[in-house]
Amino acid sequence: MTSxxxxxxxSRLQIARCLVFKVCVLLAxxxxxxxxxRVTPSTPDDPASFVDPSxxxxxxxxxxxxxxxQRRRSAEIEVGKPVGDAVSTGLFxxxxxxLDSGLxxxxxxxxxxxxxxxxxxxxxVDLAEGPVTVDRNLFIQGLxxxxxxxxxxxxxxxxxxxxxxxxxxxxxxxxxxxxxDGDGFKVFQAFRHRGLGLFxxxxxxxxxxxxxxxxxxxxxxxxxxxxxxxxxSTFEQIGRVGVLFFGSxxxxxxxxxxxxxxxxxxxxxxxxxxxxxxAVVWAxxxxxxxxxxxxxxxxxxAGMLATTFSGVGTALVAESSQLLNNTHGMRIGFAAxxxxxxxxxxxxxxxxxxxxxxxxxxxxxxxxxxxxxxxxPGALGxxxxxxxxxxxxxxxxxxxxxxxxxxxxxxxxxxxxxxxxWRNSDLEDTRSLGRIPDGIPGFFDPGSxxxxxxxxxxxxxxxxxxxFIAGEAEGTTETSLTVDNQTVDRSVxxxxxxxxxxxxxxxxxxxxxxxx
Length: 516
Prior knowledge:
Layout: H1 12-20, E1 60-61, E2 76-77, E3 96-98, E4 104-105, H2 108-114, E5 120-123, E6 127-129, E7 132-134, E8 138-142, E9 148-151, E10 163-167, E11 172-176, E12 179-181, E13 189-193, E14 196-200, E15 203-207, E16 219-223, E17 228-231, E18 234-238, E19 241-246, E20 251-256, E21 259-264, E22 271-276, E23 280-284, E24 287-291, E25 302-307, E26 315-319, E27 322-324, E28 328-332, E29 341-345, E30 348-350, E31 354-358, E32 364-365, E33 385-387, E34 393-394, E35 414-420, E36 441-445, E37 450-453, E38 456-458, E39 463-470, E40 475-483, E41 486-494, H3 508-513
Parallel strand pairs: 5-8, 6-9, 7-10, 8-11, 9-12, 10-13, 11-14, 12-15, 13-16, 14-17, 15-18, 16-19, 17-20, 18-21, 19-22, 20-23, 21-24, 22-25, 23-26, 24-27, 25-28, 26-29, 27-30, 28-31, 29-32, 31-33, 32-34
Antiparallel strand pairs: 1-2, 3-4, 3-5, 35-39, 36-38, 36-40, 37-39, 40-41
């Protein structure tokens, strides 16, 4: 049995990481504000039709301990063999090659029908593919990652007919390094997944089914059988939802390292990831932006949506992600009585109309996030943390940007200029608890007595650094750093500085060799 550290010694975010993979419950916090905007949860189908598949045929091998080098970079489905690494061009120009048998096929469906469980099918050129059913454990991968799979017809709008790719119950499927492009066709669900799976480095685009009404649909992946992880994948021009995790059998799923670009303002909806009906998901290192659409019925968009609208037990742990320019960065809970459990820490909320909106009766732990300024959620220049429908959120303390005092620099000298974002508003060092995303842009202004190289940089391990190069003039100047809506500055002195023996302050080698 896996053992965990004592809960007394752990932060609420650390506890939540453990609970995501052990499926437990939690906490409530105080109310901060209100909003009238609402969202509308999705459903993959009538809940009465859900199948509870057996997962004995396969299991995702992963290390449950968060401390083990941020878990494995690539979870593998155990189907009796590793992923094949062979590169081939297929037989007689066939677009699909079975790397185990060496045989080529004219379509993925034909290759699937002929495959043995555990085989690797490689798409070696672009192809058009009609509705596909996956009924055995398989790996499906591209040759270079640029191979495009396109549909040949519209999908249906109800039941399994919604699927472009239907993964049957109990089936384990790994998909890697492919592009699925629905351009020109109405696609309700690119993958309707009733099994166990992993999507890694997969690009979904133009997965749409009447995106401006009346249905407002189009979902890249619907997972409602067993655990399905989605890692390092991209989503653009999606009709409604990037990945919908739905149902209590979807426990401990990862949504990690993904990028979702919404459609911006207009008569449509965007949800980068939705967690519903008792699914339990850990969202880490994602970037979700421009989910700003407003449907004709008043429903609004959100970067992340989690709700018990279709069933209790829903849990979302959101960490180290960037929620940018959305209507709601995160929307937790759909209406009064919602009991979604949510913890969010070390995320960046910037440019959202509402940073976090929560209506869950369980409350939400939103400590140690970056809200785009040092004032904290709701302050001028910061994103907000808003409670509705009897929900509550604890967003105090929050992360702050700091630029420490620099030592004096001699004319034409240089010194590192380093800032950090790992302390919070209680001035606590949070590095043992988590980290903000890498790559948050910062812009340095050296002032009047020098230059900085580079002038712009991104966060790395919650720090930003550049090099201050002094000019010839002496004096004091103000150097500054701007991250999102926050600017911090410090005085920098440029002066000669003489040791008592007459050597200049940077001549430390000669100074140390001088005889008394």
